[in-house]
């Protein structure tokens, strides 16, 4: 079974940093993509970033480009999301998700077939 475990959320002040982790198990070796999404209260789920282990490509939403970095350690089956220069509008529950059916970068949540449980990120002003 595929399992994703997201962690690393917390409370941070504006301008601070957090690093989220997504520990994966049961995924096909070297043939999947990992995406990070977030959802704030009363808002729709928003794509943040994704990385394809299959072809090595990475991409970011415009709202986080230059501030967030996604990094993959395939040997450890872990994907990190380094979040710097955090803003109050980054406050949300962050989810990692795996795409095994179409293992390339995608911002479309329906492409992802496995989801972690979410970790809360709160940025105070």
Beta content comes to: over 45%
Helix content: under 10%
* Estimated structural class: mainly beta
Largest pleated sheet: 7 strands, mixed
Number of strand elements: 11
Give the termini distance in whole angstroms: 40 Å
Shape: globular
What quaternary form is this?
single chain
Low-pLDDT regions = none
What does the radius of gyration come to?
13 Å
Mean pLDDT: 95
Question: What's the helix-strand series?
Answer: EEEEEEEEEEE
So how many helices?
0
Describe what is shown at a glance.
With 125 residues, the chain is mostly beta strands.
Plain-language structure description:
Helices cover 0% and strands 50% of the residues. By secondary structure, the protein is mainly β. The chain starts with a strand and ends with a strand. The relative contact order is 0.32.
Helix-strand blueprint:
Blueprint: E1 3-7, E2 10-13, E3 18-25, E4 33-39, E5 46-52, E6 58-60, E7 68-73, E8 78-83, E9 92-99, E10 114-115, E11 119-124
Parallel strand pairs: 2-11
Antiparallel strand pairs: 1-3, 3-8, 4-5, 4-9, 5-6, 7-8, 9-10, 9-11
List keywords for this structure.
4-stranded antiparallel sheet; 125 residues; 7-stranded mixed sheet; 11 strands; 0% helix; mainly beta
């Amino acid at each position: 079974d595929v399992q994703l475990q997201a962690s690393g959320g917390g409370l941070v002040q504006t301008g601070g940093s957090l690093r989220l982790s997504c520990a994966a198990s049961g995924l096909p070796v070297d043939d999947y993509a990992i995406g990070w999404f977030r959802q704030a209260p009363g808002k729709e789920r928003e794509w943040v970033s994704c990385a394809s282990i299959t072809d090595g490509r990475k991409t970011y939403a415009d709202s986080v480009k230059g501030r967030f970095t996604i990094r993959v350690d395939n040997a450890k089956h872990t994907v990190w999301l380094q979040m710097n220069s955090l803003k109050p509008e980054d406050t949300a529950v962050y989810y990692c998700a795996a795409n095994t059916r179409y293992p390339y970068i995608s911002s479309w949540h329906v492409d992802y077939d496995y989801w972690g449980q979410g970790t809360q990120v709160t940025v105070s002003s």
